[in-house]
Every structure is written in structure tokens, then in C-alpha cells.
Amino acid sequence: MSHLHYTVKSHHLQWNVRQLCQICHHFYQNYCPDFFKHRRNVSLGKVSDESILVLLLLQAELDITSQRHFYSICHLFPCGQLLERSRFNRQSKQLIWLVQLIRKAMSEMLPSDKLAIIDSFPLPLCQPIRNHRSTIFKGLADIDYNASKHLCFYGFKVHMLVTLSGYILNYVVTPASAHDIKVIYELLEGRKQSIILGDLGYLSSELKKALEQQGYHLWTPFCKNMTGAEEHNDWKLMAMRRTIETRFSELCRLFNIKHTLARSLAGLQLRIEQIILANNLRYFEMN
After folding, report:
1. Residue 87 near residue 55, CB atoms below 8 Å
2. Which of 18, 79, 237, 247 makes the best surface tag, with the fewest CB within 10 Å?
3. pLDDT, tens digit (0-9, with 9 covering 90-100), for 231-260
4. Domain boundaries, given as residue ranges, for the chain
5. Phi, psi (rounded to 5 degrees) for 163
6. Is 3.30.420 the CATH number for 112-260+280-286?
7. Where are the beta strands (DSSP E) in the chain?
8. Whole-angstrom Cα distance, residue 232 to residue 221?
9. Strand 115-124 relative to strand 151-163: parallel, antiparallel, unpaired?
10. Which value, to the nearest 10 degrees, does the dihedral of the CA atoms of residues 135, 137, 142, 145 take?
11. Which among 287, 281, 278, 280 has a CA at the least distance from the CA of 62?
12. Distance CA 23, CA 247 (A)
């Protein structure tokens, strides 16, 4: 039975790789600029950009946070046998902008939707007991309070704009202490969705008026002691807004996004881009 169990996993992995190869080939041929596809000495490379994209998506699908561990697994595939570890890391980071380009192209294929949800989640870099001793991303990360878990954490905060059906439109990473309101303009830049649902962290009459001048309608629940809270806090809108928390749970459960071993900004950005692209591909597979 153990052999059969292993065989099933092997076939599932082979099917994933075959499917990812087709997807990455389509995206690379249609969305990668010609100057990059035909750059100097590109034919001399041992591993193509398409193969690197496949491996990056596979790493996100397999929920492997360690780049060193994933590099050892790469040798199971024909292209991975030709890779040298430092070159693999460098070539992967060089494709960050291409992954972003593919993500933006996928966003344009979405059906027109007027509604989006905005929220943030913590990205801790160490255990709470090491908050004041950690030197990871020193000068960039800082300490803030996580109200849901009732503890302080050292790290970053990831702000996301998500559709009601679960597609991630945009994201911004800030120090943990940054207020949610400060990044809302950057998240909404160039977005077609006109109705934005947020939580109490975005409750601001000045922000609402400023966004209305740009064509956005921001809805946030009122505090229970505010005038007209019962009429304003529509349970349907509040239930729709809470769907983003389900998306965050899926990112943690399927891709372990809150656990990162990155020690550089490029490595952290690459990991987040990998996960978001893999998540958005699941959206098109299910819809």
C-alpha cells in the first residue's frame, strides 16, 4: 500500500509539472517582451527562463520555504540537473519583473467586477521572544501588535487587494507598524473596481472623501457606539468583507505565506510573487 501511495503522489507531481510547463510556455511567449526573449547569449544558457518559471511555481505548489531544500529537489527534473545553486538563485530573482508582468496580464483577463476587498496580515520574521534581539532586515522591519493573536511581532505587514471570488489584484509590503491607510492609494492605483470593502482599520471620513474624488467608494463598518451603526453595518456587506480573511487562511494553509526564510528583499519579493501567481492560477482553474 505504501508503494501505491507513493505512485499516486508521483503521478500527481508529473501531471502538475506537465500542466505548469504548458501554462508557463503560453505566458512566456505571449507576455514576455521580445528584447528579453532574444537578449544577448540567451541561447547559451543551460536552463531556459520557462523552466525557471515552472520550478518557481512548483516550489510554491509544494509549499517548500527553504531555497536550499528546493534546490536539492530540482535535481529530480531534467532541467534541474543542469542548475548550479547560486546561478539558480540569481536567475530566479532576475525573473521577478516577468512574474509581475504575467500577474498584471492575468488581471486584465478577469471579468468586470465593481467590488474588491482590502485588508492586511502580519508577516513575522521570528518568534515573539526574539523581537528585540532579531537583526533580520534591520532598519526595514519593526515591531507591532497583532490584535488577533494578542501578541507583539517583529517583521512586516502585507496589504492586499482581493476580489470577492479570491483573485489577488495587488499587494504592498510595509514595516509592521505602518498604518493600513497609508498604502491604500498604492493598492488602488489603476484598479477598475469602484467599491472597496475594508475593516475598522480604514475607518476615516477624510480618506473616504478623498477616494470619492478619485472614483472609489470605500465602505467600512461603524463602531458599535457610533450613531447609525445598526443601520450602516449591513450583515451582507460584512460577510462579503470577511471573505478576504478566508483567502488569507488559504494562503497560509496551502502556501505557508507567513513562514519565510528569505534574508534579502529580492528573496522576500520573489517568494510572495511565486505564491500570488500560483494562487491566481488556481483561481482560473476553478472558475
Report:
1. no
2. 18
3. 888 888 888 888 888 889 888 988 899 988
4. 2-94, 112-260+280-286
5. -75, 165
6. yes
7. 115-124, 142-146, 151-163, 168-175, 195-197, 217-219
8. 7
9. antiparallel
10. -90
11. 278
12. 23
